[in-house]
Structure formats: structure tokens, C-alpha cells
Amino acid sequence: MNKGIMKFTFAVLLVAASSNLVMAQENEDGRRYGNFCSSCHGTAGAAVGDAIPSIGGQHKEFLETSMLEMKPAVVDGKEQAPARYSTLMQIFFKGYTNEEIKAMADWYSSRPWVPTSAPLNQDLINKGKASTHLETCTSCHGTNGNNVEDGGIPRIGGQTPLYLYHSLLEYKNDKRNKDGRAPEMDVVKDISDEELRALAEYFASLR
């Protein structure tokens, strides 16, 4: 083989190996930073209960944005209320830098998605499937609740049912989306709590 080609090939392989080492280290850092998360969100982010969200296999962009929104900002030395309120999570994220939070999001997003094992109500599933608002939901989240083309839209197919329901109620009651970055969620304000519960159960049932 030509010596010039050999040198070029070696350089490419060296860069690739170095890149893989950096990625592996970042992934390991994310796992280490996120060890505490498993006590609630389950091993590798697969939640066991029905009210705490699974985060393993969730879209990276959505995870990162959500986590950073729950971290209180500091402006001119004064702590500001986080964009997304959560008593426990804002205390937790105060102890991490933005880069550490991004590393956690990267690690959890690389884990396999495990659909909820929570018991589901078939009557509610049927009502959710028959909802006239279902098409509005699937237009963004996809028919299986997983829009792989937009990482900013959360994966909800197979997510824990009560978490989905409580999230919908937060949007409906203006406790989430205070900055108006998700205007499409205003649609839930016209849906009854009972129908939201059924929609949550339906999406939780998707595999």
C-alpha cells in the first residue's frame, strides 16, 4: 500500500478511536451523574410505578430541555424560579452544572425504551382510542406515540399513565408551558378531565 495512503488511513482511524473514547467517557459520566435518578425513575430509566415517568430511551432533546427547565437560574447572584416548577427536581438539579445535566440526558436517551408495566384499564383505553381528539395528539406525537423525526416532542407511547394524565392537567391548568413555547398544547383546555384520563391510558397502552 502507498505510504501516503497508509498514513492517511492511520490518521482517520486514530481520530475515530479518539472520538469513540470521548463519547464513551461522556456516556459514563452521564450514567454516574444519573445514579440518584434510578431511585425514582427505575434502573436505566424504566419507571416501575404509574405516576413517575420513564426516561430511559426518551428523546434526548426533550429530556435535556425538560431537565434544564427544572433547574433554577441564577441572575445577578439571585436565584430565579425555574421555568418548569417541581419541588423535588429543582432541588436536585441545583447541584448539577448544565453540562452534567446534558450528560445525564445523553445517557438516559441512549438506554432502551421499556413500555410501562403499570396495570391498565381497558375501558379507558377504548374510550381514549375513540376520542375525537386523538388525531390531534397523533399529528404531533405519531400514531404510536413516538415521533422519531422531532426530538423535541416527547415519546408518550408506553409512558406511565398517571404521569401522562397529570402532565395533561398541568398544561390544561397553566402550570406548564408558562412561556408559551408549546402553543399546540392549549388544545387540552377544551378537553374534559375524564377524556384526558382516557387519552393518557390509551397512549400508555401503545407498544
Number of domains: 1
CATH topology: Cytochrome Bc1 Complex, Chain D, domain 2
Order of helices and strands: HHHEEHHHHHH
The separation of the N and C termini measures 51 Å
> What is the average per-residue confidence, as pLDDT, rounded to a whole number?
88
Unreliable spans are 11-23
**Morphology:** globular
Number of strands: 2
The named CATH superfamily: Cytochrome c-like domain
Q: What is the CATH level 1 assignment?
A: Mainly Alpha
Assign the CATH architecture. Answer: Orthogonal Bundle
Main sheet: strands, sense, barrel: 2 strands, antiparallel
Radius of gyration over alpha carbons?
20 Å
Q: In percent terms, what proportion of residues is strand? A: under 5%
Strands ordered across the widest β-sheet: 1-2
Provide a count of the helices: 9
- Helix residue percentage: 40-55%
Which secondary-structure class do the elements indicate? Answer: mainly alpha
Protein name: C-type cytochrome
Binding site for heme c 2: 137, 140-141, 185
GO cellular component, one term: periplasmic space
Signal peptide: 1-24
Describe the overall structure.
InterPro entries: Cyt_c-like_dom, Cyt_c-like_dom_sf, Cytochrome_c4-like, Cytochrome_c_Oxidase_Subunit. Heme c 2 binds at residues 137, 140-141, 185. Heme c 1 binds at residues 37, 40-41, 89. Helix content is 51%, strand content 2%. A two-stranded antiparallel ribbon has the order 1-2. The protein is globular, with a radius of gyration of 20 Å. It is an all-alpha fold and 207 residues long. It has one domain: Cytochrome c-like domain (Cytochrome Bc1 Complex, Chain D, domain 2). It is built from 9 helices and 2 strands, in the order αααββαααααα.
